[in-house]
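Memo to structure team: turn this sequence into structure tokens by end of day. - J.P.
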Amino acid sequence: MSRAPIALLALVGLLVLSPVVGAVDAQQVGNETAGNASASDESGLTLDDLTQTGPRQANSPPSVRMGQDQFFWVVYWPANNPFANPGATDSGEYLPPGHTVGRNAVYLRTWTYGDQQETVHVAYWEKGQKTVQRGNTTTTVPVAKNVTHVTHDVTFERGRPTVKIPLRQHDEAVRVTMWIEGKEYARWANFRHKSIATTQSVDINSAGDYIASVIVDFLAIIVVGGFAVGWLCKQGLDKAGIGPQYGYTPWIIALSLGTGLGGLLFYEGVASLVVNAQYVVSLYVVGLFAIILLETYTNNVSKAVFFRPTLEHAESPTREGQNSYDIIDGEMDVEKIVRTEHGVAVVKSGLFPFLARVFGKSARLANVEQLRTRVPLKEGSKWDEMFVVDPESEKLLFYEPEHWTIDWPPLDRDHGGEWLAIVGAIVLAIGSVHYGLASFWPVTTVTTMGLLVWLATPVDGKAAVRPAPMHLRSAFGTMVQFAEDVDDAKHLEEVKDQLDRERVRKQRAIDEKVADHDRTLIEESYDPDGEVPAAIRNDDTDESVTDHRREATNGSLAADEGDNDE
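Reply from structure team:
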């Protein structure tokens, strides 16, 4: 695949993704900069009231507020810790200025010698602007808008209590001001609140709503994505022959560690992603389906064993000879090879080599037509074929995997369309961030990945085998054929003598069978009664042949001679 289609795909991806990834940030910015906000509210609280915070002693924790006789401090439990125990007396963190609380509660602590009843005020608000007329000029002034004021009556028990102050559900970040009635020093006006996404409500009122939600949010994506992934995997396996070859276990471990660690370290963000983008769960299932296909099915793949014998000087097979070798051991390597329309290639495990093969690059055997020592193995064998390597070869297999490299296309007329598309994508990304349509990091990540996809170029690998001499197969077959007859011979002279004796023995057996066959034909034709002397046998002498007669019933041969005398 050329770079031009990839560049255009990256451009389209940025066009679609840039506004989406920044929708939440844009909405939050719009809330904070909205003009023409109302300066008054039913609560009667002004911006000055809501921004006023209590005094803090030097070198004290940020959320401690100290009066003449008593002091209070606010603690919270971070939302990114799913194993936290909110409200426990021996944990919690001081609330720092400007922090956004993710849980729907903060906690007040103090020291008291008796039970103490207090009223805690909590105000939720947003900062806006309004236009005012001052003489002949108009100007904008900051104001508090959308103010919501609630109170909580709480009891501080004797000792060092931890009292929960509930916070309302907020799907978008709001400013929070909290104070204790009658204690002007106990004020906190420097934190925000945005509920963790898993606490958001879902508009499901019946089983029908639930089924419809499942179909829209999950089932439709899984079905469509499953067919799409199945088609893509088939196309990829037709070209690559075999998948990444990691097996199921590494994928399961990687996915488990990735999701587990990601959920623990980025619990708040992951929860927001899952709740606000349900399709991620569906894509996760589709990804598992793709892994199963890629790791299960293959196309035109066989297992080949490469064998290289190790030679060592041995006793000469001739009595006068000196140069002789014996196979003392061997080295063996098993590789997978795939046969495609481009030739025979060696394939090894790896995601990037697999992707390179999908794009038509592979480590083809350069001298496959010269491998005369290839031996096909019968069905049911552990391997499909065997290649015998030259004993003097340095390696069993000379191999360099197919890979990827970063390659800039030339800046010329032929590649002008690619450069124009990429420049357009970069300008779009910068503009979306500059005008608040998208946040910086998501757009930067997408743009960087698009550039890498555009610049990445697959490169062919290399594979070669130095085959053993062509006569090795016939020599080995001949050796096996005669091994049973000459297994005791140590020298060629002994081998020759044993082979000569074996040939004489086999020829003599053949002659005997021919003689028996001829004698049988003669007897049946001219001596049906069995009166002619038998043919000469190998163990008969001249005298025994003269006296030899076939056995006749009741001595019929002697009786016939007596009759002739009479």
